[in-house]
Amino acid sequence: MSGRHPTGAVGTVGTVTRGTTNPNRLRRMDRWIAATLARELRGAADPLAVDLGYGAAPWTAVELLGRLRRVRPQAEVVGVEIDPARVAAALPYTRDGLAFLHGGFELPLPGGRRPLLIRAANVLRQYDEAEVAGVWAALRGRLAPGGLLVEGTCDEIGRRHVWVALGPEGPRSVTFATRLGSLDRPSDLAERLPKALIHRNVPGEPVHAFLTAFDRAWATAAPLSALGARQRWIRAVGDLRGQGWPVLDGPARWRQGEVTVAWTSVAPAG
């Protein structure tokens, strides 16, 4: 994080991202969040979410609000961007439950509000790996009790996505999600690993071992291809669980082209 202030604005922490965004780019992440955080959303006194670094257009914040409100009609979303021009461009989309603010990792929320969710998608790829832990810690420190930080990376149209989920105490899980028809093998997702893992996909590292095991399970499940990629994926993930990998979700999520594993099973070695 290094206290960067590239825009010259006092108090903002971070650097301007490329800003690339497309409608529905984050749909896989959003649907997972809505399902995973549903109980907390329904019970929260202040069901506030932050879309951090939403980019050059506000589509992802608008879509996040819609998806969360299917779970909790009173949900609110604040889009936070470090580029003042992007904030100005987003302001016409402001409406009940949706606001846009200039800021960075310091999260300048009015009234000291603490969000139940912070989503930071495609924000940290330009940072050094050594900076990730500091950013995570700063953002986790802003969460409400029971809150969740979701940080990850996807391709330009959201076909392939990998994200880390963190609670106030630290990282909990990693989710691999894909449009199954676009996949040759699970390790294709390696190019979308978040910054904390992208440089760790090498022999001797746990994430490399996981993707290698996933590729083997995928190859073993090849006979199910006649029934479709979904059935092949479900079998491969089931085989991973059978091998002892700590898969945290079940077939209902696997059918979506997802698998979530405990962070400790893929965290960087050393």
UniProtKB/TrEMBL annotation:
Gene3D superfamilies cross-referenced by the UniProt entry: Vaccinia Virus protein VP39
Bias-annotated ranges (Low complexity): 7-21
Family annotation (InterPro entries): SAM-dependent_MTases_sf
Region entry Disordered, spans: 1-21
Domain of life: Bacteria
Name of the protein described by the UniProt record: Methylase
Lineage: Bacteria, Bacillati, Actinomycetota, Actinomycetes, Kitasatosporales
